[in-house]
């Protein structure tokens, strides 16, 4: 299928349109909120929350006997919140460190959830099939109603984010200081955490319990590479998340119906990879390029400085010397000499070099310049 | 001398788990002093400041600022936390961090405007960081980061300033710049309380000192109580300093 045809299909085909819209909104919401999780160094919290939601889904089904996705997600929300506040409780009230608390709650809730799932599967209820789709998600089950719920929650989340932007930012940066200013840090904290839980629960149907945390982290980690402003980071993370959803759906729909959730996660990871390598200020590629360039400049400066010290001892700075006295220890290669000539710092006459006035001045201000650059 | 009492601490006791970190502290800090809190590591210096500011909950005791509980007097108090307490790779600029000092007076939801920005720029100017206002904070040196924190407190325009080791890890130039600003604050009638480590500079920088080692050892004017006796009581070893008169 070519791209144009696919795009046409997205607008005309009801199911595809619903899924594309759903995954895009989901990606935007998780990207936005994921930025806060990443900056609070609570990256793994998302993983714990999504796993903690599983028993809620199973219990909601056992109690109602129906497979209405909104009811199941309400169950997920409740058990996700319980898990989250247990984690917080463990961290603040005991000596157990946060990674241990996260691991404990994650495995406890997930184990209990799996237990309930196998129990449900043994039931004679014909309705039970398909609950396990929440493990890895199944975007194909998204219907218009689900997308509306997603849009509504994302909308509310956006409004809250804009209203309390200042409070969120200062809490993320300096919690103690925020407290001394008179803000109730607990309220802000609960607000952020609740929305993170909400976003995760929304994504369970599409991406599933196991991979959901990647939706939270990947767009945020990618966005951080491109900007040093919190606002831009949150915006970029939302865009990356939404694009992951759209591209992920496209790939999965066109390639033999590959499972959508994992494809979305892989696309999001591609965003991360590209950002890590190609970001101009933080990326590995440009870091390496800067490193090589600096090393080359240093070699050049070393040679120039050496020439300067020799030339200084003569009345005539342009007094010629043989190239034999230059060696590799001073950063000298044929290349650096050619570059110095090219810069008009040095003139060459056979095997003899001499410093120009320009070169002499450049060399004498070499160290001063470095100081003023500091 | 009849001076107003800016901060009064009564019977303050703080414990992490079972071990008391601060034990039955009584403290009266008069208005307009530049005071150092000194004591060995683990003496509870930062804890004392944090308890006064309500960041930590004491298990007993009370604190009052100009006769009223801290919660009612927040606007009068500014705080400079330890530099290492925050993540300097946070995506924000120097100006933005200084603006945070105005958030307290703004209250919930309201955004900072031109007035707050102007105040922040003035504070940046005062600490000599105006040329760096748009710098990402991770690209500032340790001393510059400390100045940004100081500017953030200046923006709060308070009467009382609490500073947790503002001289930690800064070079001599920055240290002089900071102490000059603190002395200016005192001249303007503000009260400044500083957790301090370098005993040699106490007589030169401060006019008031509190010796602390879980219990309060002594508090008063530097010229009266900054002596070998109190230093030995606080640090537990025979301490000799020579104070140039």
UniProtKB/TrEMBL annotation, chain A:
SUPFAM superfamilies membership: ABC transporter involved in vitamin B12 uptake, BtuC
Membrane topology category: Multi-pass membrane protein
Top-rank taxon: Bacteria
Subcellular locations according to the entry: Cell membrane
Record-level GO BP terms: cellular response to iron ion; response to zinc ion; transmembrane transport
UniProt xrefs under InterPro entries: ABC_BtuC-like (IPR037294), ABC_TroCD (IPR001626)
Keyword Transmembrane helix annotated: yes
Similarity-based family: Belongs to the ABC-3 integral membrane protein family.
Protein name from the UniProt record: Manganese/zinc/iron transport system permease protein
From TrEMBL, chain B:
InterPro entries in the record: AAA+_ATPase (IPR003593), ABC_transporter-like_ATP-bd (IPR003439), ABC_transporter-like_CS (IPR017871), Metal_Ion_Import_ABC (IPR050153), P-loop_NTPase (IPR027417)
Keywords on record: ATP-binding, Nucleotide-binding, Transport
Pfam families according to UniProt: ABC_tran
Domain ABC transporter: 7-239
Any GO molecular function: ATP binding
Homology family: Belongs to the ABC transporter superfamily.
Name of this protein: Manganese/zinc/iron transport system ATP-binding protein
